[in-house]
Every structure is written in structure tokens, then in C-alpha cells.
């Protein structure tokens, strides 16, 4: 093997390691986490609901269906963890909480989950980001952070 080739491979390998470390550092600094495995007790559900745990933590069970989210309007406390569980009743939808990095797919027959916090008061529209039919653009719900 030519000496220049060896140097190019070493430089490329070093850069690959550097980029991987940069990726890990960025994920750590921004608090990005891989969604956890769900406990087996969480099964696909067909009706939206809101649970409040004894410590005040909110658990929002969203069902996406043509062309709305259930529940549609939810008040949540500022600065406390919010658990979202998401399922779909008909076709594949998406759930994006505006101005956050909360972005999930709603897939019939499965449940996706994510935990996040809202740090500022306000109204956060939740929109469907996956084309799901003729009224897709009307599919919106709201989180009201107080
Ligand atoms: Cu639901 Cu687009």
C-alpha cells in the first residue's frame, strides 16, 4: 500500500472518530435522548385521555385519527415532565409540538412515547406532520402551558 494511501486512511479514521465524539457531545449538551422501550403494560389504545400521577406529572395519551388529535386541548404545568404516549386509530399520522424537539410518528397498532418539559408559558400548537388525507392541514391540537 502506498504511503499516501495509509496517511489518507489514518486521517479519515481520525476524522470519523472526531465527528462521532462531536455527535455524542451535541446529543449530551442538548439533552437529546433515544426513546426508551415501553413497558409491556402500554398497549395501543383507541381513546385519548389525560392522567395525572401523584407527584403532579402529566401523562397524555393521544390518539391521532382523521383529522384530529384526542385530547384536543390540554393544560400542562410549566417545568414539569410531560409524558406523551401516541397511537393512531386509522392511518399513519405525525405529532409535532411547535417550538420544541418533540416529534413522533403515530402508527396504527403501536405506541410511541416521549418525555419533555415546557419551560415557557404559552400556547403550543400540536400539528400533524405526515400527510394523512384530504384534511391533513386541519389536524391540530393545543398544549397550554401555565
Ligand atoms: Cu394526520 Cu396529517
Note down, in words, how this protein is organized:
- This protein is an alpha+beta fold and 146 residues long.
- It folds into two domains: 1-32; 49-145, Sandwich (Immunoglobulin-like).
- The protein has one helix and ten strands.
- It has one helix spanning 3-29; strands at residues 49-52, 58-65, 68-70, 73-76, 82-88, 93-97, 103-106, 112-116, 122-127, 140-145.
- β1 and β2 (58-65) form a beta hairpin.
- The longest helix has 27 residues, at 3-29.
- The chain is elongated and about 65 Å long.
- The chain starts with a helix and ends with a strand.
- It binds dinuclear copper ion.
- Dinuclear copper ion binds at residues 64, 67, 93, 128, 130-132, 136, 139.
| Class from helix and strand fractions | alpha+beta
Going by CATH, the architecture of the largest domain would be Sandwich
Number of domain units: 2
Beta-strand residue fraction:
35-45%
Mean model confidence by pLDDT: 92
CATH level-1 class of the largest domain:
Mainly Beta
Shape: elongated
CATH superfamily grouping of the largest domain:
Cupredoxins -  blue copper proteins
Q: Major beta sheet, specifics?
A: 5 strands, mixed
Rg for CA atoms: 20 Å
Amino acid at each position: 500500500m502506498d504511503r499516501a494511501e495509509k496517511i489518507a486512511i489514518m486521517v479519515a479514521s481520525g476524522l470519523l472518530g472526531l465527528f462521532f465524539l462531536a455527535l455524542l457531545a451535541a446529543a449530551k449538551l442538548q439533552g437529546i435522548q433515544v426513546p426508551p422501550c415501553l413497558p409491556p403494560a402500554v398497549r395501543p389504545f383507541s381513546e385519548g385521555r389525560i392522567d395525572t400521577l401523584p407527584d403532579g406529572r402529566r401523562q397524555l395519551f393521544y390518539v391521532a385519527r382523521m383529522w384530529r388529535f384526542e385530547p384536543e386541548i390540554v393544560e400542562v404545568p410549566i417545568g414539569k415532565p410531560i409524558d406523551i404516549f401516541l397511537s393512531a386509530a386509522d392511518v399513519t399520522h405525525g405529532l409535532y409540538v411547535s417550538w420544541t424537539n418533540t416529534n413522533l410518528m403515530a402508527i396504527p397498532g403501536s405506541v410511541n412515547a416521549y418525555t419533555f418539559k415546557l419551560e415557557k408559558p404559552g400556547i403550543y400548537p400540536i400539528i400533524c406532520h405526515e400527510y394523512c388525507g384530504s384534511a391533513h392541514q386541519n389536524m391540530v391540537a393545543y398544549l397550554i402551558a401555565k
